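From the pipeline queue, job 12 of 40. The input is one protein chain; the requested action is below.

Action: predict structure.
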Amino acid sequence: MKTFGEKLSASELSEVLDFLVTPHMSLQNEIERPTPICVWGTHGLGKTSIVLDFAKRNGWPLVYVAPAQFEEMGDLHGLPIKVDSSEGSSAHTAYLPPQWVPVSDGPGILVLDDINRADDRILRGLMQLLQNYEMFSWRLPCKWQIICTANPDDGEYSVTTLDDAMLTRMLHVTLKLDIKAWASWAYKNSVDHRGIDFALIYPELLEGTRTTPRTFVQFLSHITKIDDLKAEIHRVTVLARATLDDATTRAFLIYINEGLEHLVSAEEILETNNFDEIRVRIEAAAKGKSGTLRLDRLQAICSRLTMAIETLKYEVPSKLNCENIVKFLLLESIPADLRYSVHREISSMDGDRSRLIQDPLLAKSVLRMI
């Protein structure tokens, strides 16, 4: 996959944007303009959404432009007008900025989405904008940052190769899929928990040609109204094949038929008054049909558990929450390295969440891994 720059997860990309953009927004002036940033990555990873969230988090306006939709050069540089000069000098031609050009002083973000899907003529015209934040007779207002997105130039996408003159006008990073970061986002945005568990068990399936994080969320939005997926397996199949590739569809149908959408939830673990019932369900999920340990299922349960604990609901855990998490982590079916990983993650959380793991037996078990 031909991309440029360091490969970053969604959270790492957000940190880089904070570092590169935020401190300089109040310092920009007409003379010193910031270097545009280009975020590379395959389709459906959420490149544009991350930039949108970044702008929204800072309270900045965002203007979205898709250069591939420009049909004429006038869509890029604006329309020419005749300007009468004063004091008898000859008239001259100026260009009115097109409607997509922001007019507020900023700070703000201008997104040039899928920049390398534009044809070569438009790309050549964009070079002046990337270099000087201006086009002929108009300039972008101060305190605006240009951020571009681009798809890999590897023959699998209909893109125009960016030459070195274009590439050197931008800073480059590449977005990669971080399944845990995606799952955390999905959990916070109330995406169907059955889909989150599936993605945590089979993360490689979200990096297909038709199956991407974007199309998978689309699929989950359609099935979230179906309470019993197995009872309506035909409808689920139709919806899956409408949005996902064949490999993901087959895996999801097996996932349903094996009853894995009923994996124990984080809330059930933390809030149950009958942990023995939860223990039975976890032990059943931990064993595959051949009796081998299904570490992928246990990892999915643990990941969703730590994501739940990070929410405000468990900022001040109850006594029952504390008792149940200790019982869970001390289960024999939880491998020692997974127990250590969950323990370490909870211990690094803020607030009173570390109370969840303050238990002598649990501490002794974890210390054996150090």
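Job complete. The longest strand covers residues 144-150.
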